[in-house]
Amino acid sequence: MGINISHDIDKSLNLSFNEYEMKMRDYAIENSVPIITDEGLRFLEDTIKKYNVKTILEIGTAIGYSAERISRANDVCVYTIERVDSMYNEALKNIKALGLSDKIHVIFKDALEAYPDVENVMFDALFIDAAKGQYKHFFELYEKNLKKGGIVICDNMSFHGFLDKDPSLMSRSLRGLVRKLRDFHDFLNNNPNYDTTYYEIGDGMSISIKK
Ligand SMILES: C[S@@+](CC[C@H](N)C(=O)[O-])C[C@H]1O[C@@H](n2cnc3c(N)ncnc32)[C@H](O)[C@@H]1O
Q1: Mapping DSSP to helix (H, G, I), strand (E, B) and coil, where does residue 158 land?
Q2: Does CATH number 1.10.10.10 belong to domain 5-210?
Q3: What integer is the mean pLDDT of 13-30?
Q4: Closest CA relative to residue 63, chosen from 29, 39, 40, 18
């Protein structure tokens, strides 16, 4: 079912989707919530349409900004996981105000513990946009529920340019994250079950297609 923009938006707010999204972006800036870049978002929406994604699992909801854009890009049913309660509550509020509660299911858990919540759902796509050190764990946990020909989209694959920097100049924790993200790149590159392409978009994105 298509979404009727003027009808579905919360009338009490009297805002269009565009105006409400602007509010969400302002909130993200004021509260230092890292949401996807405009360029990354365009790429994500184009990818969703190109692969005709209808069901997606997003890991890393934050305030629900990318989730609502994904949902509206192709009338997509979104499952999205968030572990921080303030983010979860803000996302629920936004999704309700946008009239998308029947299309976007927000799961309040650590993604490494949320598998039972989606174990019976098969996805056309996974979108990984959460703790950088856990990308490989997220991938391995949820790829079981990715359809053949489905895609895994990962954001922040360039990690703000840190992957190309000298590790000896980094703090210990940053070095650890960089090492894990490099390991994840190796894991994708050597994974015989997926074809992965990297894109210099936003903070670096990748698409892995399940063979
Ligand atoms: C980059 S933000 C997500 C941005 C969002 N996808 C967007 O573009 O609008 C990452 C979010 O993932 C959440 N997160 C990080 N690790 C997580 C985990 N293991 N389980 C669930 N959520 C996690 C963080 O709390 C944060 O809100």
Answers
A1: coil
A2: no
A3: 90
A4: 29
- Among protein residues, the one whose CA lies closest to atom 4 of ligand 1: 35
Q: What is the spatial distance between Cα 122 and Cα 5, in angstroms, rounded to a whole number?
A: 28
Read out DSSP for 103-147? TEEEEES-GGG-HHHHTT--EEEEEE-S-GGGHHHHHHHHGGGEE
pLDDT digits (tens, 9 = 90+) for 152-167: 999 999 988 888 888 8
pTM, two decimals, is: 0.93
| 3-state DSSP assignment of residue 196 | strand
Q: Which of 45, 59, 78, 134 to mutate to test the pocket of ligand 1 (most atoms within 8 A of CB)?
A: 59
Say how many Å lie between the CA of residue 196 and the centre of ligand 1.
22
